[in-house]
Write a structure and sequence with these properties.
heterodimer; A: alpha/beta; 8 helices; B: five-stranded parallel beta sheet; 9 helices; 29% strand; globular
Chain lengths: 379, 371
């Protein structure tokens, strides 16, 4: 906080129901990604690397794993004297009943008391389920430069996809003149990334008013941003260039993993100046057997490979037995594929076992097959 | 919490690993890519409930200090436990006065301040797993003065030549401790691993120092075999001593076989190490990797066979690596063919197109060297 007077709040309450069984017991930000990470490692590591060292994480849906995971701020180096990661699920208060977070803005409103203990000048709002690397310190400089009341990070998306996003229409100085949620006929291709910097005093006033408004959805996109625009406040779009992915579905989660196989992929997890930190798992190095064939793969510690792995991402402790074949697939932590089994275009969930000679997924399927139950094989 | 504190001893003057040791103590050697040798004794102690540990170091403490940190990654309680690095300023490697006994004397005030009744001593140059809590319990139950571990081997003529051997009677009493002269195949190799009362330990160190300023702890034990009840305890499972360059190379190579590795690594007995936050390893199109142990953070385009690859290595297109032990952050350039080598940290093999040592005499590439 000392460094930049900015406190971050990560919205991590989302269920991510289109990830089906993957989010049955864990919230979407806790879903595994990229061999050894969880999605929430990205905003947390970005905070740590940007010098944002007090982070509140707003959790709600299936939060046991997520709460204990983020509480260990040490993983991201967010455990110095004046630093910390705070888990903030809904709670009962002396002057208010226990109430679920009714929307993204309400989640912040219900924690005004927490934010006040730090009395920051700026509040950074992040989403817990996006994969990207961003220097929030640079965004804050831009916010100050523009003398903005709020700054919203935007990314250029292909025009034909723009109607899937919240679109910011700006003037030639970058000032936002209009915000349209999923417009049928988009006027620009600047999509909101759900990353906001607010001047806290202003936002605080707005949130208190919003809480009392019975017609509000208590949502940043639907309520807070439009009100700010109506009030003629200075809202600026901060253009981000680089890898950014919202992994809302099994297909997009699979795709985001496959992106890592490209030689000069934009996300570049190997960048030593902007490391993504995660849980330190005790595991052996990768054991590659005598008959293994590995062709284009992203593999992490604890994996044991005796079979064939092609175009695939293998997470901590995944095991591929002799004669098994993994093609265009993602094996989540602790999966085991037995001898002779063939896995094609599939995403195999945590700890799932695939039996001897079993065949899972197919090369010409339209969607990626999610394997979330044990697959029996021969014997 | 254990009734014992732990001492991890440095490798004595009889241990000389050419090349690697010039840059760091044996305890800080990279092992099997992601570990350092000292991870094994510290994890053994931590898993045995010992959370008060002294690590002795004579020279070049930087890499060890960096690796050990507060010891939190070894699962040692950061408030109740402690991992202390005992730097012995008066001692230099190779100096005949530079013995473990001299190091204990130099730090005696620290040892005396630990109010735990027992001490477990383990070396930093041996790779094995052992449960020191049963070692301690059995020692107490036996009523012996000292218990020490040994490992029976049948290749003592050609290996373990810098180690000590134990002569044991039928009741497992230690009769004498002597250097391995390599004149018999079957020998009981001393694992330099002891348990005894702290009081006795302090007495023996003081006595050794008075008798001769060149005495090691093993020397005084050998002399006390007649007076004290010293019991030998057999160790089973994987055991390696890194006492020279070849044994370092072979200890690594042996563990490429997952069956051997399973003798050492038990999911119930984790070996901890310091994380480097490297991302997973990327294998590109055209890479050929077989019979190898690979750490995270590597970029592999070439061919790797029967080798160990440390963290963050880059193996370019057309490079061939066979029977090599490669430390962290090494670059192997396009088309370079390397065989039977130990390649130290940060080395870059770019221009020498064929760097091949004889299999019986593996070569060494210096730390940070460019070829």
């Amino acid at each position: 906080m000392k460094q930049n007077n900015m406190l971050a709040m990560i919205l991590a309450g989302g269920r991510g129901s289109r990830l089906h069984e993957l989010t049955k017991k864990v919230a979407k930000p806790a879903v595994s990604y990229g061999g050894k990470y969880r999605i929430i490692d990205f905003p947390l590591s970005n905070c740590a690397n940007s010098g944002v060292d007090v982070v509140g994480v707003l959790t709600q849906y299936e939060s046991i794993l997520l709460n204990s995971y983020v509480a260990a701020g040490r993983r991201w180096g967010l455990d110095a004297k004046d630093s910390g990661v705070y888990v903030l699920p809904p709670r009962e208060k002396s002057d208010a009943n226990l109430d679920v977070y009714r929307g993204t803005a309400d989640a912040i409103s219900q924690n005004i008391d927490f934010i006040d203990t730090y009395s920051p000048e700026y509040l950074l709002i992040l989403s817990g389920d996006h994969i990207y690397k961003m220097n929030y310190a640079k965004m804050l400089s831009y916010h100050k430069e523009c003398k903005a009341d709020a700054t919203i990070a935007v990314i250029e998306v292909p025009m034909k996809e723009a109607s899937r996003f919240g679109i910011m229409n700006t003037d030639n100085t970058g000032r936002i003149v209009e915000f349209e949620e999923k417009p049928e006929h988009p006027k620009s291709n600047l999509a909101s990334m759900g990353i906001y910097i607010f001047n806290w005093k202003l936002l605080r006033r707005m949130l208190i008013a919003d809480m009392k408004n019975p017609d509000s959805n208590h949502d940043f996109g639907k309520d807070i941003i439009p009100t700010l625009l109506n009030d003629g406040k200075n809202l600026y779009a901060y253009k981000y260039k680089g890898y950014w992915k919202d992994v809302g579905t099994i297909d997009s989660l699979w795709e985001a993993n496959m992106d890592l196989l490209d030689k000069n992929n934009e996300l570049d997890l190997n960048d030593k100046t902007w490391k993504i930190y995660t849980e330190d798992v005790t595991a052996l190095p990768q054991y590659i057997g005598a008959e293994a064939v590995i062709d284009r793969a992203f593999i992490t510690q604890g994996c044991v490979i005796d079979g064939e792995v092609k175009n695939s991402v293998l997470f901590t402790g995944a095991k591929v037995a002799k004669g098994a074949k993994i093609v265009d697939s993602v094996l989540m932590p602790g999966t085991e594929v037995a001898e002779g089994a063939v896995v094609t275009r599939a995403l195999v969930a945590d700890g799932i076992k695939i039996g001897k000679n079993a065949v899972v997924g197919s090369a010409d399927s339209q969607n990626i097959e999610l394997v979330a139950k044990r697959v029996k094989g021969d014997e | 919490m254990s009734k014992a504190f732990g001492i991890i001893n440095f490798a004595g003057n009889h241990i000389q690993v050419d090349g690697l040791q010039a840059y760091r103590p044996v305890g800080a050697f990279s092992f099997l890519g992601r570990y350092r040798t000292i991870d094994f004794p510290i994890s053994n102690m931590s898993n045995s409930g010992i959370d008060n540990i002294e690590v002795y170091v004579r020279r070049k403490p930087r890499s060890l200090t960096e690796h050990l940190g507060t010891g939190r990654h070894y699962n040692i309680n950061s408030k109740r436990g402690q991992l202390n690095i005992m730097y012995t300023e008066l001692n230099q490697v190779g100096d005949i006065y530079s013995t473990d006994v001299a190091a204990y004397i130099e730090n005696m005030d620290c040892i005396e301040r630990i109010h735990l009744p027992y001490v477990v001593i383990a070396p930093s140059y041996m790779i094995y797993t052992a449960d020191y809590s049963t070692f301690l319990e059995e020692h107490i139950a036996s009523g012996a003065d000292i218990s020490m571990m040994y490992h029976s081997v049948d290749n003592a003529k050609e290996a373990f030549l810098s180690c000590s051997v134990l002569n044991i009677n039928k009741q497992k009493g230690v009769l004498s401790i002597e250097p391995n002269h390599g004149n018999a195949k079957s020998r009981n190799i001393s694992m330099d691993t002891y348990v005894m009362k702290t009081e006795l330990f302090i007495d023996l160190v003081t006595k050794a120092h008075k008798l001769s300023s060149m005495y090691t702890f093993s020397d005084i034990l050998n002399e006390e075999c007649e007076n004290l009840d010293i019991r030998a305890v057999a160790h089973r499972g994987y055991f390696a001593a890194i006492c020279d360059f070849n044994s370092y190379y072979h200890a690594n190579m042996d563990l490429i076989d997952l069956k051997h590795a399973s003798d050492l690594f038990d999911p119930e007995w984790p070996i901890y190490t310091r994380t480097n936050d490297s991302c997973p390893t990327q294998y590109f199109e055209g890479s050929k990797v077989k019979s190898s142990v690979v750490s995270n953070g590597c970029l592999i385009e070439g061919t790797v066979e029967n080798s160990i690859i440390g963290r963050g290595c880059v193996i370019k297109d057309g490079a061939v690596i066979k029977n090599c032990v490669i430390s962290a952050d090494v670059v192997i350039g396009r088309g370079v063919h390397a065989e039977n080598l130990v390649v130290d940290k940060h080395a870059r093999l770019i221009r020498g197109k064929r760097i091949i040592a004889a299999p019986e005499k593996p070569g060494y590439i210096k730390r940070g060297d460019s070829l």
